[in-house]
Amino acid sequence: MVQMERSNSKEFQRRVLSVAPVMEKHLDSLKTDFRTEIDSNRRLESINTFDELIAVLVKRNFIDDSDMKTWTKLNPKFQKYEQILFHEDNGFSVRPQNHLRARQHICLTDDVIVYLSSRITHSWRNFGRNLGLTQKHIDEIEKKYDTDYPQCVREVLQIYEENQAWMSKSNGNPLEDIMKTFELINRGYLIPEFTRLTGFNQLNPR
């Protein structure tokens, strides 16, 4: 088995071992996808497990196990097969495709965005975190808009909409995600008007 270079980090090994059971069945396709990066037919043919594939990518300096930014380069190829997403600041999320319902990208209307941005105000950070934004997202929004809370909320919603495929906790329904978030940030009183504006019924979502 190929020995992992610079892989003494327990965190690095944990990430690899956690993803391997999901990705192992795609090994042959992944080897083809990474043929250019590996740049050696002999080395490519010697890869028999997902762990070995990662080890070779580390050896080829495509991934640096100590630098999370390099892990994001795996996203485009991994997401061809599974909903696995590596983040620069907090590891990765794994959601196998065969556990997902069919997704529909649902966009929020202008009146819903105006309503939310005028009601959530200073609670926008918790609102964003509970929708799946990372601390890096929160810091960037705060740096950009400071105390312009309505604009902060709009930015939270925009980031969420652009990334709902992996942020969503309800298999891709942003209306359901937002309803649940109201409760988590003690804004349950927003639910009736939100329901009216969106026509969303939590007991019987469309």
Fold blueprint:
Blueprint: H1 10-23, H2 27-33, H3 35-38, H4 41-46, H5 50-59, H6 68-71, H7 75-78, E1 83-87, E2 91-95, H8 110-119, H9 124-130, H10 135-145, H11 149-167, H12 174-184, H13 191-198
InterPro entries: DEATH-like_dom_sf, Death_dom
Pfam families: Death
Word description of this protein:
The chain starts with 9 loop residues before the first helix and ends in an 8-residue tail after the last helix. Helices cover 56% and strands 5% of the residues. The protein has a two-stranded antiparallel ribbon with strand order 1-2. A hairpin with a 3-residue loop joins strand 1 and strand 2 (91-95). It has 206 residues and is mostly helical. The chain folds into 2 domains: 10-86; 110-199, Death Domain, Fas. The chain has 13 helices and 2 strands; from the N terminus they run αααααααββαααααα.
Offer a few descriptive terms.
Death_dom, 206 residues, mainly alpha, Death Domain, Fas, 56% helix
Distance between the termini: 50 Å
Which strands sit side by side, in order, in the main sheet?
1-2
Described by the principal axes of the CA atoms, the overall outline is elongated
What is the rounded Rg? 20 Å
Order of helices and strands: HHHHHHHEEHHHHHH
Query: And the CATH topology of the largest domain?
Result: Death Domain, Fas
Name the CATH homologous superfamily of the largest domain.
Answer: Death Domain, Fas
Q: Averaging pLDDT over every residue, what do you get?
A: 76
| Count of DSSP-assigned helices | 13
Beta-strand share of residues: under 5%
Pfam family, one: Death
InterPro entries: DEATH-like_dom_sf, Death_dom
GO biological process, one term: signal transduction
